[in-house]
Amino acid sequence: MDQTYLVTSIVLAALVLLGIKWMSSPRTAVRGNRLSALSMLAAILLVLWSNDILTMPILWVAMAVGAVLGYVLALRVTMIQMPQMVALLNGLGGGASALVASVEIVERYSEQSSFIKLNTQLGLFVGAITLSGSLIAAAKLDRRMTQRPVVLKGHGLISNLSLIVIAALAVTSLRTGAPVLALSVSILLLSLLYGVLFAIRVGGADMPITISLLNSFSGLAGSIVGFTVNEPLLVSVGAIVGASGLILTQIMCRAMNRSLSNVLSGSIGTQTESKAPTPAAETKVSEPEAVATDSPGELLRQAKEVVIVPGYGMAIAQAQGQVKALMDALQAQGTNVRFAIHPVAGRMPGHMNVLLAEVDIPYELMCEMDDINPDFAKTDVAIVVGACDVVNPAAHTAAGTPIYGMPVLDVDKAKHVLVCNLDTKPGYSGVDNPLYEMRHVQLLLGDAKDTLDKLLKEFKSETALKVKPETATALAATSPATSLTNVLQSAKKAIIVPGYGMAIAQAQGHVKRLADALEAQGTEVKFAIHPVAGRMPGHMNVLLAEVDVPYDKLCEMDDINPEFAETDVAIVVGSCDVVNPAAHTAEGTPIYGMPVLNVDKAKQVLVCNLDTKPGYSGVENPLYEMSHVHLLLGDAKDSLEKLLQAVSGNLVVVDDAADTPAPAQPTASLAYTLQNAKKVIIVPGYGMAIAQAQNHVKQLADSLEERGAEVKYAIHPVAGRMPGHMNVLLAEVDVPYDKLCEMDDINPEFAETDVAIVVGACDVVNPAAHTAEGTPIYGMPVLDVDKAKQVLVCNLDTKPGYSGVDNPLYEMPHVELLLGDAKDSLAKLIEASTTELTEAAAPTTSETPATGGAANELATAKRVIIVPGYGMAIAQAQGLVKQLMDKLEARGTEVDFAIHPVAGRMPGHMNVLLAEVDVPYDKLREMDDINPMFAETDVAIIVGACDVVNPAAKSAKGTPIYGMPVLNVEAAKHVIVCNLDRNPGYSGVDNPLYDMPHVRMLLGDAKASLEQLLQELEA
């Protein structure tokens, strides 16, 4: 072989090695990448020159095509898609090696020595494994297949058997006269199969390790075929790539404390023996004593040392720009800011470094885990941005879980921690993160971009960042002594006050557990029983006796009242009027002079009520505003669970009773429904009684009657707690007796009723009573609400009633749910009944809004236009879109697709997705061509699109969307919107399309909505 070639090969291999070394540091990575790329180009040219094939045009054409494809992909592929890209490139490398081996087998196999023959088959085997395994890896990372490990029955046996067969076929191919081509094809197919088996059993969280291993395989395959074609340069460079990939694999396994065999087997919940930590009791680190009482902005303004921990959530939210802005603001005030980089924080080592470098964050501020961990104890504030497993302290203690023994960032040791994560769900490991419950941690949940923007504004004192009660981990107080944990753990005497809310929530078991936990720590616990706390005297006694609370702890009001002043903590569970101190002062109210429990005299009071609304008396409770009172609002069971955790020191809670969202404004279609109704039947239930909403019911009826509607009330005999309950409540607000109709009289009228309004009723309007055999409700006479033309349900939620039987009424297409407090829902209806309608509110094709099922509209449609959007892409729902098209065309419907240029992430995005499922190109119509057709279209179906169909673009001056050309979807006769929710799109501009009367919303996952449409069409 030419001496010049050998020397040049050694130099080029050394340059590739130097380039890889440079790529190990962020500061020199770009230089290293360029050096390796140029060295590889030089290597290709050297091989062409040494083989005297520089002048072959096809080779230059092939290289040009490859270069253009690589350049285009480099520009288009985002950093978050880079792991998929790397997997594909690994696969191409393996595929190229397999192709070279195949050519050698076809052309020169008989001329080769036994060693080279065996080497060629090995190159075919490794190259094919790399190709198929990499394609599976790319599909998993791109969420085109399940992220979970796929383990087939007998998976290990099939894999091992295929390896044995491959080895046997390779040895057989060495024999003289063997059918080499057939044997080689069999080896190729079995190798491709083995690659699939090898990759599918690896979970999404471990896929980065698989990628680095496949990268090693691609180098190994190249090195092997280098021997086959006698190219020492290919041997050396392939070996370098293989070795570097293997080293990277070892680094990642070590960072996750997983053995390579453990990862490749798809196993979870085991750790490598060599890295097993000491038992939890010996490694437990004491939690910082500081409690996060200051606002996040105030903590940052006082901080001298801040560490930011970026994670994959930051990558998904593309929030690195906001991280940089926060860093700049902190540095401007003199704060020392650094970044803690965990090796597996992203999809590959260096992922976070690259993202941060993109926004010009200096490399020297990016600290590796081993370097930064000792500094967390001296850090004033640690800010976690989209990271979970890599900051999970359970890695030190949760033996038997996938995370146990994995080295993590010691974020929990910082003095204060701000967590900017989407939610508090576990990471890929599936292990709950106790960091979220620690006292010095504040959770700022939601999209990282939005959260960081708010944090930055609050830091600059532009606004106050609200920490939600359900996610905060510190008590709103002026000193740590008032923390919930301290209150409970330091209490020597506690009095628990049960009320009707405890009965409704069936929380007496939780009350007993709390009492036991307090007594276990030495606290004296008693129960204060008010005579009318429940529905009858003795109600609370019976409930507590059911869970074995001793009778001698149940104290009557007169006996217990003098003790409140000496009580460390009083815990109210679902009581209002019976603990309302306004009874002593509020003259002229129903409660004035009523004897009440003196809860307000206790040193600390914890109120576990659903909300802060008045009780049956209608009198506001000043207890809720007192400085020594802490509100834990919501379901009593949840609040008591928090108290139980607080007793053990695992949880603290923020007082925040005022963070209740305002009720939504009435929609145009709702206003149209009510104002055009000629006949209305209102169905009151026990929920109306609980909400004390009868006055609102009367106001709504008066408003409807003023517009000429006939209003009646349907009274079920057991709608309340006793026969006549509803009659009495409605008579209290002057509803005429002649409008209160009994069930047998009113039932025949529902079929002719325009609108039925259910207020707090469930079982008595449940049509399952006619069909659900074997249930408590079967055969019970019910009100035929479902036969009304349209039904509005003003219930608290969609849970079953006392019967425990789900109510199918809630799922019917002509039923609209207004969930929440009945008073709020009725206030919304009252406003809708009085709102002046605009022309836009009227339906375009009939005198009434669309009330039939979406499937009915589709079944009769002659022309349909489907509008795909980015939500379709995210849900990967294009297959169901194609099924819907086929189903409609089979009925004779003409179907087209309206493609907006920016509907996806790039021009042509929707075209490609739909072409993947064989939607014909001639049905994909551009915006300018399709827009005039909407006016003649029976149904337009939107699948995951918002801004591109937002008619506000024509009128909302001053918004980002104003003047943007959009699809004229609103001009269609009927519109079906299959979107995840009603939130604005990227523009942030609300979409008035959603409130138009001819528009039907099918909210939720697009796949589920499309499946519902398909099922209804088939029915």
Describe this structure in words.
The protein is of the alpha/beta class and 1019 residues long. The protein has 35 helices and 24 strands. The protein has a six-stranded parallel sheet. The chain is globular. The protein starts with a helix and ends with a helix.
3D shape: globular
Separation, N- and C-terminal Cα atoms: 76 Å
Proportion of beta-strand residues: 5-15%
Largest sheet: 6 strands, parallel
Radius of gyration: 35 Å
Secondary structure: elements and pairs:
Elements (H helix, E strand, L loop, with lengths): L2 H20 L6 H22 L6 H20 L5 H27 L5 H28 L13 H18 L7 H21 L6 H22 L3 H25 L3 H5 L15 H4 L12 H7 L2 E6 L1 H6 L2 H13 L3 E6 L9 H8 L7 E3 H4 L8 E5 L30 E5 L20 E3 L4 H12 L24 H6 L3 E6 L1 H6 L2 H13 L3 E6 L9 H8 L7 E3 H4 L8 E5 L30 E5 L20 E3 L4 H12 L20 H8 L3 E6 L1 H6 L2 H13 L3 E6 L9 H8 L7 E3 H4 L8 E5 L30 E5 L20 E3 L4 H13 L19 H6 L3 E6 L1 H6 L2 H13 L3 E6 L9 H8 L7 E3 H4 L8 E5 L30 E5 L20 E3 L4 H13 L1
Parallel strand pairs: 1-2, 1-4, 2-3, 4-5, 5-6, 7-8, 7-10, 8-9, 10-11, 11-12, 13-14, 13-16, 14-15, 16-17, 17-18, 19-20, 19-22, 20-21, 22-23, 23-24
Helix pairs in contact: 1-2, 1-9, 4-5, 4-7, 4-8, 5-7, 5-8, 6-7, 8-9, 12-17, 14-17, 20-23, 24-29, 26-29, 32-35
Task: Spell out the key features of this protein.
alpha/beta; 1019 residues; 24 strands; globular
